[in-house]
Design brief:
The complex is a heterodimer. By secondary structure, chain A is of the alpha+beta class. Helices cover 23% and strands 28% of the residues of chain A. In chain A, strands 8, 9, 12, 13, 14, 15 and 28 form a 7-stranded mixed sheet that branches. In chain A, strands 41-42-43-40-34-44 form a 6-stranded mixed sheet, sandwiched between helices. In chain A, strands 45-48-47-46-49-50 form a 6-stranded antiparallel beta barrel. In chain A, helix 5 runs parallel beside helix 11, helix 12 crosses helix 14 and helix 18 crosses helix 23. The N and C termini of chain A lie far apart (93 Å). By secondary structure, chain B is mostly beta strands. The longest helix of chain B is centred in the middle third of the chain and has 8 residues. The chains are: A alpha+beta, B mainly beta.
Chain lengths: 998, 86
């Protein structure tokens, strides 16, 4: 199909570069520089979708972000995306778009039956209809509504595109490159301020591209090109097109969405598809312009009805006619600009002006061009189903509430102008309470709550001369305060046509006996009658009317419907618009893809991965990983066809029988220094620390102020005023913050310094009866005998030339040591241990074997210290000092913590000595009792005891110590198990703790 | 996202900080005789004022200093930030 509606000349498109694309499966040709919308219009395509609720035929209405109808399913580069605004997407070769919300096709849509049943679909229809029976909601109603309503279809494929985030800081962010944006950015840039100028469209200039004005004797377009090229030359300025600032957050944090890839035919490999900018701006200048308001009339949603400025933009930017027989329906002078543009392109429009006979530069110009003008006229209703064919128009009576006479005239398009609405969304998001400006019948920004200024049309200033003057001045003023430079700028002379006053007419009355649908909100199918129903039913607050009728919701956020909706409510309620107020504007201003919000933080890039220096050795030796916070830890080392259970049993057994080595680098390590370090530890830990000698380690427990155990670990006195604290892997960061809090806020008088050394030391635990023999071979110069290096002893040594710290501490309950070396030597240490340990049958063991070893020893860990237990609950009462005070001690005196039947840690063994007890099982006395079955406790940790070769679990049990020997049931509804268990001591192996001291 | 001026490092994004609760709470002295009620007030009870609030923040991804921030809880306006001893 040829481009019948394309003008031979004019526009900013490149007629030398045709572009082929598809719409609903059919091929069309457009030009480079087109949007999908302008290319379809050039081909005479108006019917592009069906409406949300009534499935009425819908066409293009706007030419940019104002477009409510043209949401399409678009495929580019094999990526399918719903709800793309056809007026914003640039045409590229191979682009394929299709209509949404219609079946089987946009031309013949079954759902359109809703249109004929529309009296059954009033406002609040869903709330009224789908209430009973209640059980129908999930099974019947919701699936039906989801299928019937809704917009496009989200792809189920993985998104292969690349998205990025960028952070930027600037003195001034200017949003929009129309006259206000260019002038203010230029003035600020001249003062040396760091400026970011963002334009959402591909072309800079805003209304300068479409208005017949001159600035310093240049056309608007030439002047904007000149300013933009100067700005681009300046090193202190970032100029960005295709970039929509969509969110205004606290403290001038602006978020911008840049479309970097979709308009490129061949996107370079590392160019992202879209980029999200976080911009912290000292000052924000909002030059977002204004959006034309529709006038409401019968069947005003028929394809072929346009905003008049959109019709003008299609001619001036894209060289496209939206019709060849247009009616211009206006209440102000803007419509005449469109009429004149039509006339210049050889089309004869007819202008219906709701005002009485008027004179202004524009009107006179139109008259001189022989354009037919009818004053005091309005469109009553458009005729035609899939495209406007004619319209009934009428002469308004004096009060403009009825018609003196009516007639039907042929037309193929109706271009409406109901004056202009400043785009105040970002200002409103910033916290600026808007005020109503009577002279333009719209809300404008009031007092700033953050550092922002609205300029030009966004502030209700509709003349070019005032806009430029204010914008140059504001740009200078604001930047001067930041840069202390003040370059004088000559404000240019402009030539523009001055408008006469607009008319407040916004909605054509219905002739008696007629019930035409008059739409206020196209995207959500909200008609005048719907809002009237809501008000009749008692909805008063505009926020409630919005939610009941869905007025102003959905992706276009009521950009074209808001004010008309407010005006309607005001009329019915006999109020004025400022009394009705407005609904809240929230980010994002325009839809943003989820991919952009996610950026590169997906998959393994979601968070950093921490690897120990021995990571690659583990990898080479078939480690199966487990995540411990951000760390990767070997869970077990797989040999042959072993599974988790077999491998961890083998590894744990090898520790009990010979010697094992475990990577413990991930434990938190904190270096504590200063003359008051001992006193500090004495306050932090529950046990006594003042008398710990140099060269000795001690196990410690720390509480939160509420008495709950926070963490445990060993701390070693390295020298007089220096301690090496270890924490659990999970709590490392919290413990450091906790210590810093007490040192900086609570006890600043203590002379102590703490610093994390987790990543500075690599750690290896060697555990098992042969560990001393292995240690002796690793450190031949050191006396490692039980007398010289007893349990909880500490020495420094030389590991084949590498400085090492040796701690005799044990988590496994075996004779064990932990060796630390500087991280760079971690792999060296590990390989030496493996090499020299061979003769002692050394094997690496992972976290699963580590758990087995500590569980059967009854050592507590995360599952027991779960934020609900105090030291008394987990057999740590021996570590609670009676003499001194410490963090959380006062809480331990509380009544509930000292009840006789308080929960305690116990051990459990299944009676059959075979069934593993699922962690999380509940302990009950009678498994068949009626629900709710009284819960006595829960299973916290389970393992297969390698010592006794049967399952063993730790549990937190009410009155636990007095339950020893009793039989209970461990019930897990999750695993559908019910296992009879015997309660016993939590120390299943080596009750007296002989091995660690051997 | 707030912009917080660390008294030691200067303006930084909220991402670098962790919130640390009410900044006006004083921990009871060690070894002090204290009733259950007073202790509970210290451990659990916090005001949640609408408007100005002095709170603790921790420059967790920076200098790791705790400091105080006077902030409006409704507008998020920050009036001042200061070192704990100030």
């Amino acid at each position: 199909m040829s481009q019948n509606f394309r003008l031979n000349t004019g526009g900013l498109i490149n007629r030398d570069k045709p572009i082929e694309f598809k719409f609903n499966g059919k091929k069309y040709i457009g030009y480079e520089g087109d949007t999908l919308a302008s290319a379809l219009l050039a081909n005479g395509i108006h019917l592009i979708g069906r409406s949300f609720k009534y499935h009425r035929p819908r066409g293009f209405f706007g030419a940019g972000v104002d477009e409510p109808n043209a949401k399409m399913q678009v495929e580019i580069n094999g990526c399918s995306e719903p709800n793309i605004n056809a007026t914003e997407i640039e045409l590229v070769n191979g682009l394929s778009a299709s209509s949404q919300n219609c079946w089987p096709s946009v031309n013949f849509d079954i759902g359109a039956i809703n249109n004929f049943l529309n009296r059954f679909f009033p406002a609040g229809f869903y709330y009224k209809t789908f209430m009973w029976p209640k059980s129908f909601w999930y099974r019947v109603y919701e699936p039906f509504i989801r299928k019937a309503a809704g917009l496009g279809v989200a792809s189920l494929e993985k998104d292969k595109e690349r998205y990025e985030h960028k952070y930027e800081y600037c003195d001034l962010l200017v949003t929009g490159s129309g006259p206000a944006g260019l002038a203010s950015a230029y003035a600020a840039a001249k003062n040396g301020a760091k400026v970011i100028l963002a334009e959402d469209k591909p072309r800079y200039g805003g209304t300068l591209l479409t208005d017949d004005v001159t600035i310093d004797n240049l056309s608007g377009k030439d002047w904007s090109e000149k300013i933009v090229s100067e700005l681009k030359e300046m090193p202190n300025v970032i100029v960005k097109n295709r970039s929509q600032v969509f969110g205004y957050y606290d403290h001038n944090m602006m978020v911008m969405f840049e479309r970097t890839g979709d308009h490129l035919e061949k996107k370079p490999k590392y160019t992202p598809r879209q980029r999200l900018w976080y911009i912290r701006a000292k000052e924000v200048l909002l030059s977002t312009g204004s959006i034309e308001r529709p006038i409401v009339f019968g069947n005003n949603d028929t394809p072929g009805v346009f905003l008049s400025a959109a019709a003008k933009e299609y001619m001036k930017v894209y060289g496209v006619l939206v019709g060849k027989k247009p009616i211009i329906f206006t209440n102000n002078d803007s419509g005449y600009e469109t009429a004149i543009e039509f006339k210049k392109n050889g089309v004869n429009p007819i202008v219906l002006d709701t005002r009485e006979d008027q004179n202004s530069e524009l009107i006179n110009e139109a008259k001189d061009l022989d354009i037919k003008i009818k004053f005091s006229y309005a469109v009553i209703v458009a005729h035609g189903y899939k495209k406007v064919k004619s319209a009934t128009i009428g002469k308004l009576n004096k009060e403009k509430i009825d018609f003196e006479n009516t007639e039907q005239i042929d037309c193929d398009s109706i271009c409406v102008s109901g004056f202009w609405t400043p785009t105040v969304h970002l200002a409103s998001q910033s916290g600026n309470k808007l005020k109503f400006n009577d002279s333009i019948d719209a809300f404008v920004p009031d007092k700033s709550k953050q550092n922002e200024h609205s300029l030009g049309a966004a502030n209700g200033t509709f003349t070019l001369q005032d806009t430029l003057k204010n914008s140059f001045n504001t740009g200078s003023e604001v930047s001067k305060n930041i840069t202390k430079k003040d370059e004088k700028i000559q404000i240019p002379n402009t030539n523009e046509r001055i408008y006469s006053a607009h008319d407040k007419f916004w909605c054509s009355p219905l002739p008696k006996g007629k019930h035409y649908k008059r739409f206020v909100d196209f995207q959500n199918d909200v008609a005048v009658s719907d809002i009237e129903v809501a008000l009749r039913e008692g909805y008063r607050s505009i926020e409630h009317v919005k939610r009941y009728t869905t007025l102003g919701m959905a992706t276009d956020q009521g950009r074209t419907s808001n004010l008309n909706g407010l005006q309607l409510v005001a009329n019915v309620e006999k109020k004025i618009v400022p009394q009705v107020g407005h609904t809240t504007f929230r980010p994002p201003f325009t839809p943003v893809t989820i991919g952009t919000i996610v950026g590169r933080e997906i998959g393994k890039e979601y968070m950093p991965t921490r690897k120990t220096p021995m990571h690659h050795w583990h990898e080479k030796n078939n480690a199966v990983w487990v995540d411990a916070g951000a760390w990767k830890r070997p869970r077990y080392y797989k040999r042959g066809n072993e599974n988790l259970f077999e491998a961890s049993k083998r590894e744990a057994k090898n520790v009990r029988d010979h010697v094992g080595v475990c990577d413990v680098t991930t434990l938190g390590k904190i270096d504590i220094k200063g003359p008051d370090a001992a006193e500090f530890l004495n306050r932090v830990y529950t046990n006594a620390w003042l008398k710990l000698p140099v060269g000795k380690a001690r196990y410690g427990v720390m509480l939160r102020e509420d008495g709950i155990v926070m963490d445990d670990g060993t701390t070693t006195r390295i020298s007089e005023n220096r301690y090496h604290m270890t924490t659990t892997t999970a709590q490392a960061a919290n413990v450091l913050s906790h210590l810093e809090y007490y040192l900086q806020i609570v006890w600043p008088e203590l002379n102590v310094n703490v610093v994390s050394t987790t990543e500075q030391w690599a750690g290896a635990a060697i555990a098992g009866p042969k560990s001393r023999d292995l240690l002796a071979k690793l450190f031949p110069k050191i006396d490692v005998s039980n007398e010289a290096l007893p349990f909880m002893g500490y020495v420094e040594g030389d590991l084949f030339g590498v400085k090492a710290r040796i701690f005799r501490i044990s988590f496994s309950g075996e004779l064990a040591y932990e060796i630390n070396v500087e991280s760079d030597f971690g792999l060296f240490m590990w390989e030496k241990i493996i090499e020299i340990g061979e003769e002692f049958n050394v094997q690496p063991y992972g976290t699963e074997a580590l758990s087995t070893l500590r569980i059967e020893m009854g050592h507590v860990a995360g599952p027991e210290l779960d934020g609900r237990t105090i030291p008394y609950d987990v057999s740590l009462e021996g570590l609670v000092s009676k003499k001194k005070d410490f963090i959380g001690k006062r809480s331990l005196a509380k009544e509930a913590f000292n009840k006789a039947d308080r929960q305690k840690i116990v051990g459990l063994v299944p009676l059959d000595r075979k069934s593993s007890i699922p962690e999380g099982s509940h302990l009950v006395e009678n498994k068949n009792a009626k629900l709710p079955n009284p819960k006595l406790g829960h299973v916290s940790s389970s393992c297969w005891s390698v010592e006794n070769n049967n399952p063993f679990s730790l549990a937190i049990l009410k009155d636990g110590k007095n339950m020893i020997g009793k039989k209970l049931f461990a019930v897990s509804p999750l695993k559908n198990t019910s296992i009879e268990v015997e309660v016993m001591s939590s120390h299943y192996v080596d009750h007296e703790g002989k091995r660690v001291r051997s | 996202m707030l912009n917080i001026k660390c008294p030691y490092c200067g303006d930084r994004s909220q991402k670098e900080f962790a919130y640390g609760g009410d900044g006006t709470i004083t921990r009871p002295k060690l070894n002090q005789e204290i009733s259950d009620e007073e202790w509970d007030n210290f451990v659990y009870l916090r005001k949640s004022p609408r408007g100005k609030h002095i709170e603790l923040w921790h420059h967790i991804a920076g200098c790791r200093q705790w400091f105080k921030v006077e902030r409006d809880t409704t507008t998020h306006e920050i009036f001042r930030t200061f070192k704990p001893e100030e």
